[in-house]
Amino acid sequence: MKPVAAGNALLSCFTVGAAAAAASVPSFDHDLRIPTSYESAVLGRRILALTPLGTLATVFPHAKESDGIAPLERRPPGLDGLPYSLMEYIADCEEDGLGNPTILAITIGTTFKNAAAGSNVSLAVQWTPPHPPAKRIEGKKTKKAKKRSWLSYLGWGDDVKEGHHKHGRHHHDYHSAALPYSAANLPRFSLLGHLEPIEGGDDRDGHVASCYVKSHPDAKYWLPGNRIHQAHFVRLVVDQVYWVGGFGDRAFIGWIPVEEWQRVTREEWQNARLPGEKKGWKEWSVAGDL
Ligand SMILES: *[C@@H]1O[C@H](CO)[C@@H](O)[C@H](O)[C@H]1NC(C)=O
Fold first, then answer.
1. Whose CA is nearest to atom 9 of ligand 1?
2. What is the mean pLDDT of the chain?
C-alpha cells in the first residue's frame, strides 16, 4: 500500500463530511487539505449529538473538602488530587445549541462528589462507527462469540473448561477484542470545563428529560425525583476543546477555539457525515464512499 495515496484518500474522509457542513468555505481541494478547526468542530458537534457514552474525569479533592466522605466510603488514603475517570451517559439536549453536554448527575457517584467539591471536569468522547468497514486497513477476522456466563469471564464458569481444553489458557487469542477498524484513525476529543445545574432541568416531563431518555431509555428509572437516588440534570460548560481528528497527516489535531465549538449550528452538524455512518465504508476510503 502506498502511504501517500492512502493518506490523501483518508483525508477526504474527513473533508467530505466537513465540506457538506461548512457551507461558509466556498472552495477547497478536498484531496489535499487538512480540515480547519471549525470544520473539525462541526464533526465534533455531530459526534457529540450521536454518541451516548463518554468518559468523564474529575480530580479528588484535598482532605478538607472530602471530610466526612472518606470514612463513609472506606476510601483508601492518598486519593487527594488524583484524577478519576469513568464512563458516563451523555446527551446533547440543550436548546441553546452551544454544545454543552447534558449529564444526569447521581449525587452519590464519585464523579459528582468530586465535582461538588469543586473539581473541574474533562469529558472524552470518541467516534464509534455504527458499521464495521467493508474493507479495513489490516487485521484478521475474529470468531463469533458464543453466549457465555459472566462467571466464565472470570475463569469460574463451566464453559471455561471447554474453552481451556480447546484453545489452552496460554494460547488465548487476546486479539479477539480488537476493534473492527483502526480507532487511532477516527476522531475523538476532550471537552474541558465544569459542571453546573440546568435551571429548571429536573422537570421529568420537561424537554431535557424527554430528550435525555430518547438517548438513554433505561435512564427513565433514575430521573430526578426517583425513589432511590438523588439525581439532577447538569450541563458540562465547555471551556476548552481538544481535538484529535485521526492521523495527523490528514486530520486536524489541536485546540478548537471554544467560540467555534459554540458557533456550530444544528444544520451544519446535521449535514455533516462521519466515517462509517454508512454501510460498506472502507478505511482507506476515497471521497464519496462515506
Ligand atoms: C477550574 O478551572 C478554572 C479555569 O477554568 C480555574 O480557574 C479553577 O481554579 C479550577 N478549579 C479547580 C478546583 O482547580
1. 120
2. 81
| Ligand 1 binding pocket mutation candidate from 62, 65, 82, 120 (most atoms within 8 A of CB) | 120
Q: Give domain limits for the chain.
A: 3-132+181-271
Nearest atom within ligand 1 for CA of residue 194: 1
pLDDT tens, position by position, 223-263: 998 888 899 999 999 999 999 999 888 899 999 999 999 99
Query: What's the confidence (pLDDT) of residue 137?
Result: 66
Residue 187 alpha carbon to ligand 1 centre in Å: 27
Nearest CA to ligand 1 atom 10: 120
Class of domain 3-132+181-271: mainly beta
For residue 120 and ligand 1, the question of a CB distance below 6 A is answered with yes
Residue 29 pLDDT more than 90? no
Q: Taking the model in full, what pTM does it have?
A: 0.78
- Reduce the secondary structure of the chain to three states and give it as a string: CCHHHHHHHHHHHHHHHHHHHCCCCCCCCCCCCCCCHHHHHHHHHHHHHHCCEEEEEEECCCHHHHCCHHHHHCCCCCCCCCEEEEEEECECCCCCCCCCCEEEEECCCHHHHHHHCCCCEEEEEECCCCCCCCECCCCCCCCCCCCCCHHHHCCCCHHHHHHHHHHCHHHCCHHHHCCCCCHHHCCEEEEEEEEEECCCCCCCCCHHHHHHHHHCHHHHHHCCCCCCCCEEEEEEEEEEEEEECCCCCCCCEEEECHHHHHHCCHHHHHHCCCCCCCCCCECCCCCCCC
Q: What is the pLDDT of residues 114-128, one digit of tens each?
A: 999 999 999 999 999
| Model confidence pLDDT, tens digit, residues 138-165 | 545 555 556 667 777 777 766 555 444 4
